[in-house]
Every structure is written in C-alpha cells, then in structure tokens.
Amino acid sequence: MRFQTPQFIDIEDKIIGPFTIKQFVYLAGGGGLAFAAYRFLPLFLAVIIIIPVAGLSLSLAFYKVNGKPFITLLESIIKFGIGKRLYIWKRSPKSPVVSKTPEAVPVTSLPHLSQSKLKDMMWSLGVKENENPVTGPKNPSNISLQ
Fold first, then answer.
1. Within 10 Å of residue 27's Cβ, how many Cβ atoms?
2. % of the chain exceeding 70 in pLDDT
3. In this structure, what are the phi and psi dihedrals at residue 23, rounded to the nearest 5 degrees?
4. Whole-angstrom Cα distance, residue 85 to residue 7?
C-alpha cells in the first residue's frame, strides 16, 4: 500500500479565495473596525482612525520582515516596550576580597616522581619498555607486569 508524503508543510493553505485563514481574519477585522468607525463617527474622525487600522490590517496580512510575518515584529516591539530593562553605562571595577588569615595548605604527601619521566609516560600509555614493535620482545622471560 502506498502513502502520499506531504511536501509543502510550511506553506499555509489558501482556504478563503486567495487568502489564508489568518490573512482573512486580519483583513475582515480591519475592514469591520473601519466600517464601524465610518458608520458611527463623524467623517473627519473616522478617517483618522480608518487609515492606521487599514495600514495595520494590511501589514498583518501581507507584510513580512526578514521572511517572518509582521505579527512577530509587532509582538517583539510590545514585549520590548513593556519589559524591564537595565542600563549599565559604566562599570565600576570590583576590588578583590583579601582575607586576613592566610590559608595554609597541609602537605600530606608529594606525588611519586620516578627517575625517568619518559618511562612513566610509556607505562601510562600502556607501552611496554622491553617490546620492539618490529621484532617483538627482546627477552620474553624478562617481561614483568606491574
């Protein structure tokens, strides 16, 4: 049985004519508010309200900023205006805290230092000192594991 895989899942469907549901709601809301202002207010006051409402509804429906809908920009503007902000113009340097009592570090034991650091590194890497990678061990009876 074959199933069809959806291909364009990030594109909204055009449901109401050439508009998506969001675009239609923005345009219908703006048109309804403009009609109410025209119907119930004097003409000079209605025009003052209709122009920004029409511009906002058209921007919400069609305008994109950096490929994102205008509503995200509007939301960011509102959050920035309402949110708290802290401005720091000049930082004052913090003085280091000096303790009055010196801290003594107890010396319990010193790390074990061998005569050859190279030998220690070989053993830490798991390389045996008596083995030669080409010929094998020099004296197999002399190899001891520690």
1. 18
2. 71
3. -60, -40
4. 43
Reported pTM: 0.52
Calculate the CA 119 to chain-centre distance: 48
pLDDT at 92: 74
Rounded to 5°, angle at Cα 106 from 115 and 118: 15
Q: pLDDT for 19-60, tens place per residue?
A: 899 999 999 999 999 999 999 999 999 999 999 999 999 999
Q: How far, in Å, are 85, 86, 95, 97, 136 from residue 92 at the CA level?
A: 19, 16, 9, 15, 67
The Cα 59–Cα 100 span in angstroms is 66
Give strand pairing partners of 65.
68
CA 113 and chain centroid, separation: 48
